[in-house]
Design goal:
Layout (H helix, E strand, L loop, with lengths): L13 H8 L8 E3 L3 E4 L4 H8 L6 E10 L4 E10 L3 E2 L2 E9 L25 E2 L2 E2 L17 E5 L13 E2 L7 E6 L9 E9 L5 E8 L1 E2 L4 E2 L3 E6 L7 E8 L3 E8 L5 E10 L2 E8 L6 E9 L2 E9 L2
Parallel strand pairs: 3-14
Antiparallel strand pairs: 1-2, 3-4, 4-11, 5-10, 6-9, 6-12, 7-8, 12-13, 15-16, 16-17, 17-20, 18-19, 18-21, 21-22
Length: about 300
């Protein structure tokens, strides 16, 4: 996951920029997993390759939905741990945006590599930086991975994970974000991670695009939609539109593939139905709701965050 923190231009997020300034000697520079600090962009791949074989203690799942009526994005970050941990570990969430452009000179890109001699060409994002001007004109720039907000603060949300994390445990934290009119929902990428507050290192991360509107799953014989998502109580509901008479089976499946709930309805006639989805007694985390009718199967991932 890439996050571009800007400085001295219209894309600057002041809090993020100020924090980054304490970790690097100056721009352009960056961090890799917040473990390797003050890394020149030309060395990012080398640093990444040195860490890619590390085995993280958790997987991270991210879901992102958007309510166009309220202009609020709801982002849930759900890590599942493969090992027990003790300490101050925290969940965080960053909103990034792709395809940003501008027309004024403030959108021009400072180019510290212009006309430099290097052992290998400094190329990326469609640019040959050594052979371009400083600055690169705004008309020639399109910005990706731009940090728009860091929702959990620079260090993550204190208390978002327990002090004693159990192996196999799944935890969730939900962030609500009022999306400004200046940000294009279709271009937003939501990045969630788990970090160690003591060292600052990011243990693992994942991302999701924003799902807009009602998430209807459409098949040949039926449609389904599980709401709300995230589910914040013992019950959700699945809205079903059967296009023909059928026997119907609903199942809830955990992240390990275990079927933890089953509901069988025989000889349902064609039409629209709303069924309760019972999560009583289940731990917070990621689940799959699976429905079968007339030999056809649809599935939808949901987050339980009671």
């Amino acid at each position: 996951m890439l996050i571009a923190v800007h400085n001295g231009d219209p894309m600057t997020v002041a809090a993020y920029d100020s924090w980054m300034g304490t970790k690097i000697s100056g721009y352009p520079s960056g961090l890799v997993d917040r473990k390797d600090l003050d890394v020149d962009p030309s060395d990012f791949i080398t640093e990444y390759n040195s860490l890619i074989s590390d085995i993280p203690p958790c997987d991270v799942n991210v879901t992102a939905t958007y309510n166009s009526s309220t202009n609020v994005g709801t982002f849930t970050v759900s890590p599942q741990f493969a090992a027990s941990l003790n300490g101050d570990y925290r969940i965080n969430c960053v909103v990034t945006e792709d395809n940003l452009t501008g027309t004024t000179s403030s959108w021009s890109q400072a180019n510290y590599y212009s006309y430099q001699t290097a052992n290998m060409p400094l190329q990326g994002a469609g640019h040959d930086w050594q052979n371009e001007t400083d600055p690169v004109p705004a008309a020639n720039m399109e910005y990706d991975h731009v940090a728009r907000a860091i929702l959990g603060g620079n260090d993550g949300v204190q208390g978002s994970l327990p002090a004693n994390i159990t192996s196999g445990g799944t935890y969730s934290w939900t962030f609500n974000y009022n999306i400004p009119a200046t940000q294009n929902v279709s271009n937003l990428i939501i990045i969630g991670w788990v970090s160690d507050f003591a060292t600052g290192r990011i243990l693992n991360a994942n991302s999701a695009t924003v799902t807009t509107g009602i998430h209807n799953l459409t098949g040949t014989y039926f449609n389904m939609n599980v709401t709300p998502n995230p589910i914040t109580s013992d019950y959700g509901q699945v809205k079903v539109n059967l296009k023909k008479n059928a026997d119907v089976v609903f199942e809830i499946i955990d992240v390990l593939g275990n079927i933890v709930r089953t509901n069988y309805q025989s000889q349902m006639t064609a039409g629209e139905y709303i069924y309760p989805v019972n999560f009583t007694g289940l731990s917070n985390g990621i689940y799959t709701v699976r429905m079968n009718a007339s030999g056809e199967t649809l599935t939808q991932k949901v987050v339980l965050n009671k």
